[in-house]
Amino acid sequence: MNGDELVRLTVAQALVRFLAAQHSERDGAEQPLFAGCFGIFGHGNLAGLGQALLQAELKTPGGLRYYQARNEQAMVHIAAGFARARNRLATFACTSSIGPGATNMITGAALATINRLPVLLLPGDVFATRAAPPVLQELEYPGGHDVSVNDAFRPVSVFFDRIWRPEQLPSALLGAMRALTDPAATGAVTLALPQDVQTEARDWPLALFARRVWHVPRPVPEPAALARAAEIIRSAARPIIVAGGGVGYSGAAAELRAFAEATGIPVAETQAGKGSLRYDHPLALGGVGSTGTAAANRMAARADVVIGIGTRYSDFTTASRTAFGVPQVRFVNINVAAADAVKLAGSALVADARVALNALTAALTGWSTPPAYAQEARALAQAWDEVVGRAYALGHRPLPAQSEVIGAVNDAAGRNGVVVCAAGSMPGELHRLWRTRDPKGYHVEYGYSCMGYEIAGGLGVKLAEPGREVFVMVGDGSYLMMAQELVTAVQEGIKIIVVLVQNHGFASIGGLSATVGAERFGTEYRYRNPRSGRLDGGHLPADLAANAESLGVRVLRTQTIAELRAALSQARQEPGPVLVHIETDPTVAAPASEAWWDVPVAEVSELEPTRRARRDYEAAKQRQPTFPP
Asked: Could you give the dihedral angle defined by the CA atoms of residues 196, 200, 206 and 211, in that order, rounded to the nearest 10 degrees?
């Protein structure tokens, strides 16, 4: 190709053509960086990106494929779910109009950035020429005419640019691709596109559209840092591993297993790291922290060295800094992100998880914990698995417990299925009860814990891994927030199995409300009682199964766990999306994690339940250290 050759395209046409030519590569395996572009069109992107995507579909088969969505936030969740399932090596672009269409994507952007998941956002923007302001849906900011609602994307994006002129596009695109393929600091990337600029034409060098491969590196550990980490681990009497999402993104499950087996160090898992080790491995403790297992939390409480691998150490993981009870506990943190590697005053090993684990395994040759220590961990894990078995077979009446539903779905998922969840009471119960059999079999979004992620995220997982059965577990609260992408599943023939757990309200926050003395206030779906003036009447009659059926989804209604199991078996045979409905008793608690979560309680109150909760809170707060930071 002659570097001087030019082609005349609009900015939007050039952008679409560029995206179709981008690929990522790690360990020699290449894949398209973009699986397609989701879009909802309005006056702010229709004539620009809409026309460009149409032209690509008609004139360039096999190029950037267009997908239609129903909600702008949801399409970002689809992209995030896809990116996570693909270990951040591929994603989707998402385009919206200006104004509310654009700001609808901000929640999705925050979720992606907090979870370090690459998504490309292309919101329309106001006229660069300012020919006739204010245009429809334009914010008139008195502090400056160069500000629009899209500036709200800045704090939730790892890279943001606004393309005021066509000639700015190439540098912006290269900056965007760099951020999307950065293993340490990826997240939402936003390119705001003024609606007039999208349609402007320019002569572009053909070299801009050449096939480009972005190498995703595996940073190696610095030798001195590796030596320090090995020295700390060798000095440990009771070490424990906390496996985070970085294990999965690095594809390091086999290396983690080899490291644990060579050293005899038991493995606990964060929400993002669950599945790093099979639940029945002799060194597997399960989830750790506020939503973790009693086995993991008992081992964590007595650990003198904690080896964090690819974890952000969120408050749920550390039980609000109370999980690791030994006063002089030390941390060795393996993380590709330097900011995470130094958390909790840890000894930082800034490196890719797979590479670092291989190096540490070699550095610790000949050293391991005493056999009795591994046996202790195994005994605790086995005892917890018996607790799980009882929770799965609780036999609660008249309505089943949520733990029984989880058990039925766990069995239906088998070895290769994927469970998807995000918010409410289910993520906590899944973290401590789900028996993981595959590194990619557990997909719970708990960085942002975003209600409404579940169905959209499940679509993303299925698009990324069409050979797996995807089980989306969602409560009625989350369903009511964002169920409309079921229409997208019907439209595209995307097979997901949605298990809708009806408990007439926000069960999770209701339970938390009771513990902080707020008495489940505002957490149940009830009529307003004309006599009391409060929301304490009968349950609302919302029929969510009928709603799903009206969207074209195959619906299976169940009342008992036996019926649920039969419906799940039938759902696996269906060709398209299925929703299985079951009502549960929200007052049945799951087995306790023996861990705490810091949720402040009102310091003064006229209500005795609140005063009692405050006394309990102050007692628990005494166990929370102020250091390490």
From this structure: 20
Q: Which strands sit side by side in the sheet containing 418-421, from one edge to the other?
A: 442-444, 418-421, 470-475, 497-502, 578-583, 554-557
End-to-end CA distance of the chain: 55
Strand segments (E) across 33-182:
34-39, 66-68, 91-96, 119-125, 159-162
Stretch (H or E) spanning 240: strand 239-243
Question: CB–CB of 523/513 below 8 Å?
Answer: yes
* Sign of torsion over alpha carbons 286, 416, 445, 264: positive
Select from 566, 191, 82 the least CA-distant residue to 556: 566
| DSSP assigned state of 142 | T
Output the pTM of the full model: 0.97
144-176 b/e (C-beta count within 10 Å ≥ 16 → b): eeeebbbbbbeebbbbbbbbeebeebeebbeeb
CB contact at 8 A, 248 and 440: yes
573: Cβ contacts below 8 Å, ≥ 6 apart: none
Q: Which amino acid is at 113?
A: T
Task: Tell me phi and psi for residue 355, to 5 degrees.
Answer: -65, -45
Inter-residue contact 465 to 418 (CB < 8 Å): yes
Tell me whether strands 239-243 and 305-309 are parallel, antiparallel or unpaired: parallel
Q: Are strands 159-162 and 188-194 parallel, antiparallel or unpaired?
A: parallel
Burial bucket for residue 437 (CB in 10 Å: 0-12, 13-18, 19+): middle
How far, rounded to the nearest angstrom, does the alpha carbon of residue 475 sit from its chain's CA centroid? 17
Q: Give pLDDT tens digits for 612-623.
A: 999 999 999 998
| Per-residue pLDDT, 425 | 86
470-498 pLDDT, tens digit each = 999 999 999 999 999 999 999 999 999 99
